[in-house]
Write a structure and sequence with these properties.
Strand content: 15-25%
Distance between the termini: 42 Å
Number of helices: 14
Structural class: alpha+beta
């Protein structure tokens, strides 16, 4: 089976809660958060020694893009490394707040919706071969992505109730509810070049960050940000298998959906996953049946082609258990592994102890607190320490990923950044280019994302190391 490059981009929600009068808006909070980055790197858009990109996106959203990875284990480690790096920035921001005589706390949330109803994203990237029929593959992938939220959603409380448009089996309008997904209510179409107003599931902008004659990027932008490593594994792992089936022209049912936006919302707000929605051919299908078809096909495909990484058996098992849990309404088999189920168990336990339902302010607060990245205060991290949320990686592996790039082109980029910093040489990098600003002849292009060593870069690194004027220090320290 062909190798795959993966990447995740995560936008974080930011807020400042004052202890007394004197609130700070998102723009100012982001300025304070990024002060150590600007002090160290003279920019709010930087590539780090682990190969990742950390930057301040439009709308004052702190964002972290993982380095390119060839394994899902590396991808999850890189994604979690982003939480660690931002948590470190939050701690330093607290020192800045005190120095500027502000009394309050900055909170960073790895979620997708703020209290005002604004949405921000989590984008997945899958490198495809250019020879793939991209438009056809995209059309075939959309039904899977629409229904994938039932196995990989982050869960969300709707204190104002079921939306007016919801089909009646989903509940009465105005009745507080809980849904599979945070992002589903903010996506409007299947595929386009848009990213903000009419958000699609798939952004089709042709920007592979690699040799465009060989590769194309599948840029999925409708997924939820996951706190759970096992949910991330299922989300990326299942999507990778479906992509491989489509690339190999493996026979799958045509589930082309007539109205993407409506189907997304129907699926998200129906925890039974049985509410039907119309397909383009005039028939109807529900999320549970659709995901069953993809899972059964994935099992047969893997049986004939073999598992392409060590986690495939677990992905198939967790996929099956999640569908079974939804079908029976009994979530105990997944309530330590799937974000929406982990969170729902927590919220329901508070309701059972006296909270007045999903509209209770305490429940709404817990919904947000689940996504707080603070290692000591964040609810998911508290649950994980108590054994109520499973982990794939230990703290040492995640900490290592904050400094060490995966075995891809990111390794070349990371070595270049370290050596340039140590030599005191100003430089510019992006996903493909490495350049020394004061030596324009050193402008190297790395088009192969699978490459881990480059002779031209190695020669440059030797020169930089020879001229090194200082020892390397970790970022933000």
């Amino acid at each position: 089976m062909q190798k795959r490059i993966f990447g995740i981009e995560t936008e974080y929600g930011i807020t400042y809660v004052p202890d007394s009068l004197g609130p700070i808006g998102p723009e100012e909070a982001s300025r304070i958060l990024f002060k150590p980055v600007v002090d160290t790197w003279r920019s709010t858009n930087v590539f780090l020694p682990n190969g990742s990109r950390l930057y301040l996106d439009v709308g004052s959203h702190p964002e972290y893009a993982t380095a390119e990875c060839t394994t899902i284990t590396d991808l999850i480690a890189q994604d979690k490394a982003g939480e660690v790096l931002f948590a470190d920035l939050v701690n330093q921001a607290q020192d800045t707040l005190e120095a500027e005589d502000h009394h309050g706390r900055i909170y960073l949330f790895k979620n997708n919706v703020d209290s005002a109803g604004n949405s921000f994203g989590s984008h997945e990237n899958y490198l495809l071969e250019r020879k793939v029929e991209f438009a056809k593959l995209t059309t075939s992938l959309i039904p899977f992505l629409i229904t994938r939220q039932i196995i990989a959603g982050a869960g969300k409380v709707h204190p104002q109730g079921v939306p007016e448009w919801a089909p009646r089996p989903l509940g009465k309008a105005g009745e507080p509810s809980y849904s599979f997904s945070q992002r589903a209510d903010y996506i409007w179409e299947g595929a386009s070049t848009a990213t903000t107003r009419a958000r699609p599931l798939i952004n089709t902008r042709d920007e592979p960050h690699a040799d465009a004659t060989l590769y194309r990027r599948m840029h999925v932008i409708n997924g939820d940000s996951n706190m759970s490593e096992t949910t991330s594994l299922l989300k990326i792992g299942s999507t990778d298998i479906v992509l491989r089936m489509l690339e190999d022209h493996y026979p799958l049912r045509n589930f082309e959906i007539s109205d993407t936006a409506t189907a997304l919302r129907v699926v998200s707000h129906d925890l039974s996953a049985r509410e039907p929605f119309p397909l383009r051919d005039g028939s109807f299908c529900c999320a549970l049946d659709m995901q069953r078809h993809y899972l059964d096909s994935a099992r047969n495909y893997i049986e004939h082609h073999g598992a392409h990484h060590e986690h495939v058996p677990y992905v198939l098992d967790l996929w099956e258990r999640t569908l079974q849990a939804i079908e029976t309404g009994e979530y105990s088999s997944i309530d330590t592994e799937i974000d929406w189920a982990i969170k729902k168990k927590l919220l329901d336990s508070y309701i059972a102890r006296g909270a007045s339902g999903y509209a209770d302010p305490r429940i709404v607060q817990l919904d947000f607190a689940y996504h707080d990245i603070d290692p000591d205060r964040g609810i998911f991290n508290v649950l994980a320490r108590a054994g109520r949320a499973q982990r794939l990686l230990n703290a040492e592996s995640i900490q290592r990923a904050t400094m060490v790039p995966p075995e891809t082109r990111a390794k070349i980029r990371g070595e270049f950044i370290r050596a340039s910093r140590a030599a005191g040489e100003p430089f510019t990098v992006d996903w493909v280019h490495l350049r020394l600003n004061n030596k324009p002849q050193f402008n190297i292009v790395c088009q192969d994302p699978f490459e881990v060593s480059n002779s031209e870069v190695q020669a440059l690194l030797e020169t930089l190391r020879h001229n090194s004027a200082q020892q390397w220090a970790p970022p933000f320290v």
